[in-house]
Amino acid sequence: MDQLRALRYFIKVAETGSFTKAASMFSVPPSSLSRRVADLEKSLGATLLKRSTRVVKLTEVGRIYYNDVQNILNQLELSNETVRSYQTTPKGRLRISSMVGFGERILMPLLDAFSEQYPDIVLDVSLSDELSMLGRDEVDIAIRGGYAPNERVLAKKLMDNRFIPVAAPAYLAKHGVPQNAIELRKHDGLYFRTPSGPTPWLCKIDGQWHDVTGRTVAVSNNGQWLIKKACQGQGILMSTRWALASYIQTGELQELTFEHELGINQHTDMAVYLLYQKQRYLVPKVKVAVDFLLASMKN
Amino acid sequence: MDQLRALRYFIKVAETGSFTKAASMFSVPPSSLSRRVADLEKSLGATLLKRSTRVVKLTEVGRIYYNDVQNILNQLELSNETVRSYQTTPKGRLRISSMVGFGERILMPLLDAFSEQYPDIVLDVSLSDELSMLGRDEVDIAIRGGYAPNERVLAKKLMDNRFIPVAAPAYLAKHGVPQNAIELRKHDGLYFRTPSGPTPWLCKIDGQWHDVTGRTVAVSNNGQWLIKKACQGQGILMSTRWALASYIQTGELQELTFEHELGINQHTDMAVYLLYQKQRYLVPKVKVAVDFLLASMKN
DNA sequence: TACATTATTGTCTAAATAACAATAGTGTTT
DNA sequence: AAACACTATTGTTATTTAGACAATAATGTA
Fold first, then answer.
1. Does position B299 have pLDDT exceeding 80, yes or no?
2. Which UniProt keywords apply (chains A, B) (predicted)?
3. pLDDT value at position A12?
4. Cα–Cα nearest to B146, from B271, B240, B234
5. Predicted confidence (pLDDT) per residue in A102-158, tens digit
6. Which protein residues have any CB–strand D distance under 7 A?
7. A146, B9, B55, B113: most buried, per Cβ within 10 A?
8. Option in B45, B68, B83 nearest A61 (CB)
9. Rounded distance in angstroms from the CA atom of residue A53 to the C1' atom of nucleotide D6
10. Given a cut of 80, is residue A184 above it in pLDDT?
């Protein structure tokens, strides 16, 4: 029995919920799938799929097996690709996942240059603040705000990701410049919403964190919109230096500095990390992309 | 092409370094392996093995692929076993790996009772202080002194593993009872050697760790031998409470207590952990063993 | 240089899988 | 309630793929 073929059939049937649909994807008659899956079940001594003529769905063991096998088949495909692309020129589809703001402001401009340099690499970029599963093999490279990756994943620090407070000169003229962090509580605020909720303003005084969140003017997960509002003088915004740099330079926004450390969570060592699977660095397209991005970020 | 078969052939050839030897293990002619491996190489577009009539060895890519594939095949075998044994009575070979001292004094006596309760489980116990690769699938259950496992591995605390200082009454009568940790430096010591080297005596005073190692009388990785020496009054020994309990109870050894915290490394929260892969808990033999050991340790 | 061993290749046989047609079962619709 | 449409399965044949066996070429050793 060709177990691997049986597994591929099983996976597709489980996903489509139909032998016929799955069969059409392999361009073989449904009877083949039926027989192969039956073989597989026989060899395992368990029924993986509960069938009726109308619906096919996974049994309890079936679901367990499906999860395992899907993962295993993905790994195998990765390994095959590694070998196939070994010592060839960088080419193929490169899947990159990035945080939205960072992707728009920093990553994508860089990728334009990257594409020119490596025209044979087809970029597949998805921006999302949800953390995608790097291990589950949906992306080749991920860019995320500081969190600890697992052992198989390498994390390279790209740049600082601490949040700094800014406001428009007009706002400060009208409401006054806060002299210390505690005073922020009396100010108008524009707040980021991360996947885990809106971000407060926090201040560390003598080792203790205090909430210094002000009045809420607006909340959004869209940095650009918040920055626009901040420029219009609608309130104080905390965002990252890389997002604000150009506005601070032109004077549209002004950085506020305080004696005590300010942040949006208690991890003060926030950074933007480039993540990739150690093994995948062997694949030329991944290698050149990692190298390119790391080199670019040094400027 | 039956890729899975080809992979199994490839693996065996790589391991034995010979098509003929590998073929005999599958009870097929060498020509079959030669053809299958050739197919595999063709489909990958890379040569995996460097052959001559006399020696067969892996190429650079071959080695990478071999490592990946071996791991993948192991995982698949585990998944198959999970399904096959799903909701059956506990049986089969159960591979347990444990630290030597703990295995001898605590684990093995328990396993005798376990074997009576589950006669269909064949125990395969190996004692070693080196950390075996749980992920690499050589054992079902591992018992280790406190270290952080990865995400897929569950770690259940079995018991405290802090090191406490003891000495024979005769030793204390002759050399005096040390009144504080610093005085240990003037005493004779019996020291454990772990895989990472001999263990010093450390003492935490006002948040700072100080080395209070005394004169070296003997060093060994064998706890029993060190305990014997301690009982003979040859010096002060730091070992775990579970190893020393019976000797303290009989009065052969006497626990020394100090104002400041004492240890053999800077991790004061040392414990003995039971480790197993999350998924494998579905396999009855693993489940009952984990449950049995955890229940037993509560006494 | 002769020898023994080994991987490979050619050819035939056996096994496994796909193809195709037909059947039986099930949920939906009128 | 009955006809309908769709689907999984099964029987049978054709095709593909792997194994068996003998022969060949290559290579390290004696």
1. no
2. DNA-binding, Transcription, Transcription regulation
3. 93
4. B271
5. 888 899 999 999 999 999 999 998 888 766 555 555 789 988 876 655 667 888 888
6. A 18-21, 29-31, 34-35, 37-38, 51, 53-54, 56; B 1-2, 5-6, 27-29, 31-32, 35-36, 39, 52-55
7. B9
8. B83
9. 8
10. yes
Type and span of the H or E element at A40: helix A30-44
State the nearest residue by CA to the C1' of D16.
B1
pLDDT at B130 over 90: no
Say if residue A51 is in the same domain as residue A138.
Answer: no
Taking the C-alpha atoms of residue A217 and residue A197, their distance in angstroms, rounded to an integer, is 16
In angstroms and rounded to an integer, the radius of gyration of the C-alpha atoms of chain A is: 25
Range of the domain at A103: 92-160+270-297
How far apart, in whole angstroms, are the C-alpha atoms of residue B292 and residue B110? Answer: 9
Residue of A nearest to B48 (CA): A83
CA(A25)–C1'(C25) in Å?
A: 24
Q: Among the three residues B68, B84, B100, which one is the final residue of a domain in this structure? A: B84
CA of B204 to C1' of D25 (A): 73
Please tell me whether residues B105 and B152 are part of one structural domain. yes
Q: Kindly report, residue by residue over A278-288, the tens digit of the pLDDT.
A: 888 999 999 99
Q: Which two tokens stand for residue A105?
A: 């402001």
pLDDT digits (tens, 9 = 90+) for B194-252: 777 788 899 988 878 889 999 998 898 888 899 999 999 999 999 999 999 999 999 99
CATH code for the domain of B137: 3.40.190.10
**One-character DSSP codes across A80-112:** HHHHHTTTS-S-EEEEEEE-HHHIIIIIHHHHH
* Residue A246 and residue A98 share a domain: no
Of B25, B59, B84, the residue that ends a domain is B84
Report the CATH number at residue A230. 3.40.190.290
Work out the average pLDDT over A51-70: 91
pLDDT at A77 over 60: yes
Does the pLDDT value for residue B128 go beyond 70?
yes
Same domain, A153 and A105: yes
Both tokens of residue B270? 């040392």
Maximum CA extent, chain A: 78
**Residues 6 or more apart in contact with residue B14 via CB below 8 angstroms:** B48, B49, B58, B62, B66
Q: Report how far residue B189's alpha carbon sits from residue A50's, in angstroms, rounded to the nearest whole number.
A: 67
| pLDDT (0 to 100) of residue B131 | 65
Distance CA A75, CA A57 (A): 25
Q: The domain that contains A37 carries what CATH number?
A: 1.10.10.10
The residue with tokens 């003060």 is A268
Q: State the CB neighbour count (10 A cutoff) for residue A45.
A: 11
* pLDDT for the residue A149: 59
Q: Please check whether residues B45 and B135 belong to one and the same domain.
A: no
Residues B155 and B201 in one domain: no
Number of domains in chain A: 3
Task: Please check whether residues B72 and B21 belong to one and the same domain.
Answer: yes
Do B256 and B185 reside in the same domain of the chain? Answer: yes
Would you state the structure tokens that stand for residue B261, as one six-digit string? 């915290």
